[in-house]
Structures are given as C-alpha cells and as structure tokens.
Amino acid sequence: MSEPRERRRSPGRRATDRAIAPIDVQDAFVALTDGILLSDGSGVVVSANPAAFRILGESVLVGRRFEGLVLVAGATTVQQTEGHVMRRASFPREERMGVLEIVSTTVGDRGLLHTVRDVTAQAELLRLKEDFLLQVAHELRTPIAALSATLDLLAEDALSMPRDELGSMVGTLRRSAFRLEHLVENLLDAGSIEAGTFQVRAMPTSVRNSLQEALGFVQPLLDSKHQHLRTDLHPDSDRVLADARRTAQVLANLLANASRYAPEASVVTVSAESRDGFVRVTVRDEGPGIPADEQGRLFQRFFRSRQVRDQAGGLGLGLSICRAIIQAQGGEIGIESEVGHGTSVHFTLPKARHLTEEAEAN
Ligand SMILES: Nc1ncnc2c1ncn2[C@@H]1O[C@H](COP(=O)(O)OP(=O)(O)OP(=O)(O)O)[C@@H](O)[C@H]1O
Ligand SMILES: [Mg+2]
To answer: How many whole angstroms separate alpha carbon 346 and alpha carbon 237?
Structure first.
C-alpha cells in the first residue's frame, strides 16, 4: 500500500520506473491537446504532433520553416528570456478569428521545441472583462457628473434661488444618488448570484408596500420623463410569501426598464391578480418592444437588445437579478413583447395565507 507514496518521495527511482518507458512519451506526444513541434538548427520542422496540425489548420508541417508558419499568423512577441520566446498570433477559426499562444524553447544545441496553444477562450474572457469595466465606469460617470454639476450650482447660489428651481435641483441630486445606489446594488447582487451566496428571506409581506418602496427610487425617473404610473392591484392579491426588500428591488428594476425604454409621456401600468395559489404581478409599458429573436436571451447577464444599446445606458444585469430573486422564492418570471406594441413583464410569488386562515389552520 505504501509503495506508491514512497516512490513519489524518491525521484531517483523514477528514471528506472517501468511506468515511464520511452514508448509512453511518444504516446503522450500524440495524445497532447497542445500542439508540439520540433525544429532543427535551420528552423525546419522535423516533427509535429496531431494537435499541431489541428490547431494550425495545416495538412503539411514537417519540412516547412516554422518561422514562415508563424509569420503568416502575424505573431507578436509578448515575452522573451534567454532560450525562451512567447508569442501571440491570430488565426482564422470557424467564423471568427482565434488567438494562439506560441512558446519556443531551445533544446539541445540549436533545435527548438514549440508549444502551440489555442487561447481564444481566455483572450475572449479578458476582452469581456475589460469591456465590462469600461461600461461600469461609463455608467458611474453619468450620475456622478450630474451630482457634481448640480452641487456646483447649489454651492454658488442656493440661498438666492427660487423655490421651484431649488426643488428641481434637489430632484436631480436625488435621482443621481438613487441611480448610483441601484447600480452598486445590482453589481453586488450579480457577484453573489455568480458566487452562489445569494439569499432571500421570504415572509408574509404586502405587494403594495413593496411597490411603495420601489417608487421611492422610480418615481423621480417617471417624473423626469413625464410618464404616468397606473396601478391596478386586486385587493385579494396583496399578501405574498416573499422577501419584501427583494420584491421592491424586482419592481424597481422592472419599472426602471419601463421608464428608461418607453417614450416620454407614456403610461406604465402595474397590475396584480391572484391565480392558483400565486399572485401574478405585471409591469406593462408603451415602449418600443423587443424583437422576437432576442427575447430568449433577456434574462442572461449582460445581454442588451441591439435596439436600445446606443440610446440608453445600462449594464444588462437588472433582469438576470430579477429572475434570481423570483426563482429563489418559488415563482416564475416571463416577458411578452412585440416590436411597436410595448413590453409586459410578469412575475409570480406564492400567496401568503391571511393571519385568520393561519390561526384557523393551527
Ligand atoms: N421594458 C422594456 N422595453 C424594451 N426593452 C427592454 C425592456 N426591459 C428590458 N429590455 C431589454 O432587455 C435588456 C436587458 O434588461 P436589463 O434590465 O437586464 O438590463 P439593462 O436595463 O440594459 O441594464 P441594468 O438593468 O443593468 O441597468 C435591456 O438592455 C433592453 O434591451
Ligand atoms: Mg434594467
């Protein structure tokens, strides 16, 4: 039993170990998923494993000059130490360009061992991360610019300003602060959903109260676009078993979308009705609608419709967070939308029994 462990501790035995016979090295050369090429003193490829052919997309490698192959791919050096060069190159891959990492190491007198690895996925991830950081910075800049410009004006002559002007400036400050709060909250939640630490605490709560809380954030947005909110909450559909703060967050995200994407002076409707033990809440707007081919991706993180991308800011996090909140509470969320006919987002929450019913049941 203890033999393998002992073997691992005494490296001297490895050279004589039958498990590492020369034939296995050859097998490994063939089986490796990284491309391996050997070139001789004049730079001509003398050996290549199957992965090298696959990754470089070539049918003949042996006998060709390695530098010629790399030159075609337009490689640039990213790191160079004695006897060791790391380069990156683009190469056509299915419909898009891929990225290769090529590491060349001196072996023996003048020969070189080249490792060729497809790093397209890592490069893509890095690009997404950079894009995301840029977008976050951009999203933060708008409310911060509004805050500081308004504060400058107030600092100059708040005391002599007419009341209505003062009121409108305070409104701008409030909207900008809410927007920052909303952004940071969404970013933190997206992180905890990804990490699997996202939590909700369901208790008997009121849809109406959560809507009131959401309006603290959303009403200034609606007001600034002269949009009107209509509510149609059935009295029988108020008590739900849900996390009150999270439910307010869902409503705030949906209403913020309705306000952001729908035109000025349009009507946004929130309705609630009760069905099969669930309360179904719907937020409807008179906005541009969402193309059918994009509807399946709306709940994915970072997805934004091509229709709105250039017109309105956003990170594409709101709906993915709404879905996590609703599903964690046993409900479901969905969208009905048609281009030119507005958008309607609904979610369900389990109904809470009335206190009297609960008392009777006990
Ligand atoms: N009411 C709506 N009308 C039209 N398009 C919408 C509506 N709600 C959502 N969308 C589309 O769905 C996308 C995703 O929405 P989501 O709320 O997840 O992100 P966002 O609004 O872009 O950014 P964030 O909510 O993170 O600030 C939006 O970018 C938009 O394209
Ligand atoms: Mg949104």
So the answer is: 14
